[in-house]
Design a protein that fits this description.
Length: 653
């Protein structure tokens, strides 16, 4: 048995060393590294115990048993534990069985040697070595243990091991640890209601206290265990306590250096006012009806937002442009949004912690191309337990906001290093947003210091740039049309509608030189854009029908690129001889015949679309039916209708 156990543990030792070497101490393998180092303890003690002179036999049994206990406790805390992993415990079970067999054999041998009779005189009664009464001087020599330098302070007495082992271990070691853990749980209950900087300072203080208590209790319990046998206690219990302390110290040290140090560094930066996440930027819309939150939600962001909201009681909408940030700050801002019954709006991006604020809005709107992202919670130095706890806390808040379990499962399965951007339909179905927006709802603050700067901004759009290259001054004309609404504090959508009508006026000039095939291609692009806009909502479709929709933020990119390609081809053909003008009488007669195919309601809309601007559903449906009817005409009539529709003016584009 001794040889078998010795060979098995030596082989295991080599295998675990190889695992440790292969892992390389990588950050993703740190649990393997810690587990391997801890497993060395029972293996090493077992190899000492199976030598000819059985040393540390009881300690080896206790170490292997504790290895099994710690594995069982750790497995219960893992949400995705695989029971097949329990096979790694088989050698430690074998160790315990083998060591118990060795211990029983040695005990029998000692008893046999102790009670074997020694016959000196056949006539004399047998004597039994080990049962003779102890000499009187030996009995008197066993005096109770007295420390050389007894202390009066309770904490010093524990530190020097002058307290009994039960008091040192159960009261001071475990009891003090439980008190600290209780303080942590109590602090968690109140930390959500204070600032992130204050919470971080509190966590730093509690962690420092816990480390001091751990060192104090471990040193005192170890010293007390060393004197336990001198006080008349069993050496076995002292060995068990010391092995347990070794496990606790190794576990605490590994957790501190692998997990808690990165956390403490982050807490220190937050508490000292140097949050690496950054700081939120708060701006008001030009009409002061909306507040725009840009950037990350670092420590103190909630206080900044509250102060700005207090200064502008007329705010109705919170516009979000954020990649996320501290969840605690986002929770505080979300509470402000709910308390004030504000709406939330996303036109560009809102991810991670930002979504908690989005979900707090009374009305939650987003454009079709808005990037709204979700993933698991993250904090530097997270161990699996903290990862699971923070993520479940975040999911609880999402659940309270009304998100379904199916949606939450996708969030739970998206790692913090990744991001899940649900599709538009998924966001609507899950009620992340209550409606789709055509964009430009708010008069967002821009760095439009002058009309010239606005022209520069518009010239950055590829379609406007292409028009401006062909017709110099087009960008300035578009900016001049939008500058008036800008000065009146109009929304971005109103500004763009004014600029778009100017740009489409140049389309009419290009169409005078376009051939019939080019005009039919534009009709198809226009029809596809209307259908895509209707898939967003009737409002977007009506805006497009009235040439007021910013298609760059609302429609699929492919439709924008198709229009840009058509425009560039039309510009190339602009220098050729203009096509013959359409016979206006022939065009009018065709339109009259076409109107008879529609209901009176739709015919009335097509005669005067501006009069039905406040009926988006009707305007959208009428425009779609009108274009589809033109496309269904015979080729000759279709060419007349398209040229008459697009060549005479830029209307409808």
């Amino acid at each position: 048995m001794n040889r078998f156990l010795g060979f098995m543990n030596a082989l295991l030792f080599a295998i675990f060393l190889l695992m440790l070497f292969v892992s390389g101490g990588g950050i993703e393998q740190r649990q393997l590294v810690v587990g391997t180092l801890v497993a060395f303890i029972p293996m090493t003690l077992t190899m000492f115990a199976v030598e000819a002179r059985a040393r540390l036999l009881r300690t080896a049994i206790a170490a292997n048993a504790m290895m099994l206990a710690f594995f069982a406790l750790g497995a219960r805390q893992q949400p995705y534990f695989d029971p097949r992993a329990s096979v790694v415990l088989a050698p430690f079970v074998v160790n315990i069985i083998g060591l118990l067999v060795i211990w029983a054999r040695l005990r029998r041998e000692r008893l046999a040697a102790q009670y074997e009779p020694v016959i000196v005189d056949p006539e004399a009664p047998p004597s039994y070595p080990g049962l003779e009464p102890l000499p009187k001087e030996t009995i008197e020599a066993r005096e109770p243990y007295e420390p050389e330098d007894p202390a009066t302070n309770y904490f010093v007495r524990h530190w020097r091991g002058q307290l009994s082992l039960p008091v040192s271990f159960w009261v001071n070691c475990l009891g003090a640890t439980l008190v600290c853990l209780g303080l942590i749980q109590l602090a968690k209950k109140y930390l959500e209601n204070i600032s992130l900087r204050g919470a971080s300072a509190t966590v730093l203080g509690i962690t420092a206290l816990l480390l001091v208590v751990t060192v104090w209790s471990a040193v005192g319990a170890w010293s007390s265990a060393g004197h336990h046998s001198q006080r008349g206690g069993a050496r076995g219990w002292a060995a068990v306590v010391q092995v347990l302390i070794v496990f606790v110290v190794l576990s605490t040290a590994s957790n501190f250096f692998l997990y808690q140090m990165p956390q403490m560094r982050e807490y220190w930066l937050i508490a000292s006012g140097h949050d690496p996440v950054g700081q939120i930027e708060v701006r008001f819309s030009r009409d002061r009806q909306a507040i725009v939150l840009s950037g990350a939600f670092g420590a103190g962001s909630a206080s900044i937002v509250k102060a700005q909201l207090d200064q502008a009681p007329g705010i109705t909408t919170v516009v979000l442009e954020s990649p996320g940030g501290r969840m605690a700050e986002a929770v505080h801002i979300a509470r402000l949004v709910r308390q004030r019954k504000l709406n939330t709006y996303v036109e560009t991006h809102c991810a991670s912690a930002c979504t908690l604020i989005l979900l707090a809005g009374a009305d939650r709107a987003g454009t079709p191309d808005a990037q709204i992202g979700f993933h698991r919670a993250f904090f530097p130095g997270m161990d699996p337990q903290l990862d699971a706890a923070m993520t479940e806390d975040m999911l609880k808040k999402y659940r309270e906001a009304g998100l379904s379990e199916t949606f939450l499962d996708r969030v739970r399965n998206t790692q913090a290093s990744d991001m899940w951007y649900p599709a538009r339909d998924e966001l609507v179905e899950a009620h992340v947003i209550t409606r789709l927006s055509a964009g430009g709802e708010t008069a967002q603050p821009r760095k439009y210091d002058s009309q010239q700067y606005l022209a520069f901004e518009y010239a950055g759009d590829p379609i406007v740039s292409a028009i401006n290259d062909r017709f110099p001054g087009a960008a300035n004309a578009a900016a001049a049309a939008a500058w008036g609404p800008h000065q009146r504090g109009a929304s971005d959508a109103v500004m763009w509608a004014a600029a778009r009508k100017v740009i489409l006026g140049y389309y009419a000039k290009l169409m005078r030189n376009a051939d019939d095939a080019s005009l039919r291609a534009y009709l198809q692009i226009r029809l596809d854009q209307l259908r895509a806009a209707r898939n967003v909502n009737e409002e977007a479709c009506a805006l497009l029908a009235n040439s007021s929709l910013d298609i760059t933020h609302t429609l699929p990119k492919e439709l924008y690129e198709r229009e840009l390609l058509w425009l560039r081809q039309a510009i190339k053909a602009a220098d050729r001889k203009p096509a013959p003008a359409v016979d206006l009488q022939q065009y009018a007669e065709l339109m009259e015949r076409l109107a008879t195919r529609f209901s009176p309601e739709i015919a009335a809309v097509m005669k005067n679309p501006a009069a039905h601007a406040d009926e988006p559903q009707l305007l959208c449906q009428s425009t779609l039916e009108f274009y589809e009817a033109i496309r269904a005409l015979p080729l000759g009539e279709r060419n007349i209708a398209v040229r008459g529709l697009f060549q005479a003016s830029g209307e409808g584009k």
